[in-house]
Structure formats: C-alpha cells, structure tokens
Specification:
Its main location: membrane. This protein has 247 residues and is mostly helical. It has helices spanning 2-16, 25-35, 43-52, 54-73, 81-96, 102-109, 118-138, 144-175, 187-216, 221-245. The protein is built from 10 helices and no strands. Helix 3 crosses helix 4, helix 3 (43-52) crosses helix 10 (221-245) and helix 9 (187-216) runs antiparallel to helix 10.
C-alpha cells in the first residue's frame, strides 16, 4: 500500500513540475548557424561574383592595364614587351565592350526615361557607337579617316557624359544631409552612402582628367592619363567590390 501511495505521489509531482528537456538538436543547430551567418560575403564569394560580371572583368583588365602603364611611364619596366601588352589589353577591352549601345537604344525606344533625359541618352548612344567604330579601326577593319573621326566624337561625347554624371553625383552627395544617431536610418549606413558618393565623385574627376587629355592633349598628358586611368580603374573596382560584397 505504501508503495502505491509513493508511486501516486511521484506521478503527481511529475505532472505539476515537469522536467525541463533540452531543445531538440536541430533547433539548436539552426539557431547556432543563424548566429554565425556573416553580414557580408566572404572574399572568395565576392571575387567570384565580380568575375562573373562583364563589368568586373573589364575593371580587372583596366586596373592591370593602367598599373603597367604607370610602371612603364616611370621607367620601372623597360622591356618592349610591356607596352605591347598594355595595347593588347586596351584592344581586348574595346572588343568586349562592342554592342553596348544596344542597352541605351532599348531604353530610348521603349520610352523608359523622361523626355529631359533623352538628350543624355542620345549622347550615350553616340558615344557607344563611336567606340565601336574605333574598335573596328583598331582592328584595321575600316578606313583610318573614319576611325579617327569616330575617336574624336567618342572623346567629346564621353566628356559630356562625365560632366553630367559629375553634376548628378555632387547633387546626390549634397542631398545626404548629416543625421543624428537617433534617426530612423542608421548613422553607419548614412556614412557609408556619403563615402561611396565621394568615391564616385573622385572617380569621375579622374575620368574627366583622362578625357580632357584626350581632347586637348597637353604636354603632361602621358603622366596625367597614366595616373588618372589607374585611379579611375581602382575606384571603379572598389565600387563594384563594395556592391558585390553587400548584395
């Protein structure tokens, strides 16, 4: 009888104070994994993403090209092989960019932009088509006279695009007014936007210097274009890296 009473009391105790069981292993595992998921992509994942993009390959080639141009210009590299290699890299990039006018043409024909933007879009299309003609000229496929005229047209169109983009970038930076820590948007994200807008402006200034040297050809154009080309390519690569690592 005493045994029955003791058993009954034990059962009642278990009902009133159930033992605390550990969480299932799969729940713990999922929680642990979620806590260790990085907010940014790894370096290898970012590099893979960039190399899968056409723009990423172009920026990589451009950085290599102008790194060697700077070294050649300052007589760090003396072999005749290196200037030939930089010329081939330039031609490779031109070939890879063939047909880039198709995108702006589609936008223009589909009326996807306001009428006020049509002139800039036409300028971009003209620039891209002129670049294609220059590429064919570099490949010795068309008349040199036509190729040189297209090259001059491309320079002026690119300069107009740079000025327009620089104006937009400065306006975007101006709109990023300082915020306090207690506002809805985090202060860190705001500072990141300010930094990237500043990077864009510096990159466009470098492009402007490079293009201006193509148009007016000052005596120091060799040095200016070597360094401005390198700065532009590095900053463009950095922008692409930043975008790829956070998406």
């Amino acid at each position: 009888m005493a045994t029955i009473v003791k058993t009954t009391q034990t059962i009642q105790s278990l009902h009133s104070n159930p033992p605390k069981l550990d969480a299932p292993p799969d729940i713990i595992t999922n929680r642990t994994i979620a806590q260790h998921v990085p907010s940014r992509k790894s370096v290898f994942a970012t590099v893979q993403t960039i190399l899968l993009l056409f723009d990423g390959r172009d920026k990589a080639l451009k950085t290599i090209q102008y790194t060697f141009k700077v070294l050649i210009h300052h007589n760090v590299l003396h072999s005749k092989l290196w200037p030939t290699m930089t010329s081939k890299l330039s031609l490779t990039r031109r070939v890879l960019r063939l047909g880039t006018a198709l995108g702006p043409i589609r936008i223009l024909t589909a009326s996807l932009v306001p009428p006020t933007q049509n002139l800039l879009l036409l300028n971009t299309i003209t620039n891209n088509l002129a670049d294609d003609v220059v590429c064919f000229y570099k490949l010795s496929l068309i008349n040199p006279v036509l190729g040189k005229q297209a090259q001059k047209t491309a320079h002026y169109c690119w300069f107009i695009s740079i000025i327009a983009d620089l104006k937009s970038a400065c306006s975007a930076l101006w709109r990023l007014q300082p915020i306090s820590h207690d506002q809805d948007r985090s202060y860190k994200n705001h500072q990141d936007d300010v930094w990237m807008a500043s990077v864009s402006i510096v990159k466009l200034v470098a492009d402007g210097v490079f293009c201006a040297c193509d148009i007016w050809q000052p005596s120091f154009s060799g040095t200016a274009q070597a360094w401005s080309g390198l700065i532009s390519s590095v900053l463009a690569g950095y922008k692409l890296w930043h975008k790829s690592s956070t998406t």
